[in-house]
Amino acid sequence: MKIIKNNNKISELRKDLVSGNWVIIAPKRMQRPFRLKETSPLKRLRNSIKNCPFENPQLFGHGEPSLVLKSEKNKNQWAVQVVKNKYPALGGGTQKTKHEGPYELRDGIGIHEVVILRDHNKNLYQLSNKEMSELVRAYILRYQELSLLSYIAYISIFHNSGLSAGASIDHPHSQIMALPIIPPNVEHSIRGSLNFHRKTGKCVHCVMIDFEKKSKKRVIFENKKFIAFSPFALNQAFEVRIFPKKHSPQFEFMSVEEIECFSDILSAVLKKISKALGDPDYNFFIHTAPVAAFYYTHYHWHLEILPKKGIQAGLELGTDVIMVSVSPEDAAKILRNTKI
Ligand SMILES: [Zn+2]
Ligand SMILES: [Zn+2]
Predict the structure, then answer these.
(1) Which has fewest Cβ within 10 Å: 37, 67, 127, 144?
(2) Ligand 1 centroid vs 71 CA: distance in angstroms?
């Protein structure tokens, strides 16, 4: 068994004995900034620029950036920079699977990075297309480099905006987690698309895209290369998914034109959500093929956006039974008709 040199073990991956799902146990994450004075988890507060750790990340103890993209307007200024998360959920250790009685556990090895945008007060929906495409380019460049690490199985890219969406710092930032395992929700998505492919010889997402394009009732926005629609069976009100129209398992292989079209549709959908739903907190994440992409040619990468329009209640948390109060057709109609 190959041992990773870094001994800075900070977390454990634990497998649920019944469901087979993995969780990350990272007690050191409790040290990250937390607003005790927050009265309601849905109340949106802005922390000031003065105390913001992302205005000058190195001054606030973040290491040297792994990537810096310069501003178009001012070459001395950074537009996007990627640093290691100061309170990472993953770190060093070994790849060995260990046991504690009937339980299975592993060290939480991996890389946890933060993609920081320059402007403290600019939410993603306020970015220009050029700024958005720089952010997407940063995702791709970091993905390509992290995917070369032998112990990485999956790279998760996500963005939390607002306290109720899990962002502990207001300053706009995305996160990249390079993991030694394939996360359960990605695995379920991959398994579902593989089963469909085995049965029909087709990509389940290509079939859905074709149908949604014809039916139009759940389509929110479309450009030359991408389409955004409300999923037929959604998990949450106003959930939106963005797909490349052409079958493609790996997001990191986007062409320059595809990056432009993807940035355009992501901006458009976020603007519509912000305007129609009153600037809600939101999460988005990319589902793409695992690093060993050769095995996943049936998969079709996409981005999922989840605006925060409610809290998960006991039923959802306890049973996985999801209740959604707005139909995808109504949600799509509202967002489609929102002028931006
Ligand atoms: Zn800031
Ligand atoms: Zn496809």
Answers:
(1) 37
(2) 16
Cα(30) to ligand 1 centroid in Å equals: 21
Task: Return the CATH number of 185-336, one of 3.30.428.10, 2.60.120.1440, 3.40.50.720, 3.90.190.20.
Answer: 3.30.428.10
Q: Where are the alpha helices (DSSP H) in the chain?
A: 129-146, 184-200, 204-215, 256-277, 314-319, 328-336
pLDDT confidence bin for 310, thresholds 50/70/90: low
* 167 CB neighbour count, 10 Å cutoff: 18
pLDDT in tens, 40-76: 444 455 677 888 899 999 988 888 999 999 988 888 8
Strand partners of residue 111? 178
Catalytic choice (62, 112, 159, 173): 173
State how far the Cα of 260 lies from the Cα of 264, in Å rounded to an integer. Answer: 6
Let me know if the fold of 12-30+45-181 is the same as that of 185-336.
yes
Ligand approaching nearest to the C-alpha of 122: 1
Residue 134 pLDDT class (50, 70, 90 cuts) = very high
Q: What are 320's two structure tokens?
A: 């996985």
247 an active-site residue? Answer: no
Cα of 61 from ligand 1 centre, angstroms: 14
How far does the centroid of ligand 2 lie from the alpha carbon of residue 128, in Å? 29
- ipTM score of complex: 0.96
Per-domain residue ranges of the chain: 12-30+45-181, 185-336
pLDDT (average), residues 176-202: 91
The b/e string for 221-260 (b: 16+ C-beta within 10 A; e otherwise) is: bbeebbbbbbbeebebbbbbbbbbbebbbbbbebeeebbb
CATH number of the domain at 12-30+45-181, please?
Answer: 3.30.428.10
Among all bound ligands, the one having the nearest atom to the CA of 56 is 1
121 alpha carbon – ligand 1 mean position (Å): 7
Instruction: Evaluate whether 328 touches 220 at the Cβ level (below 8 Å).
Output: no
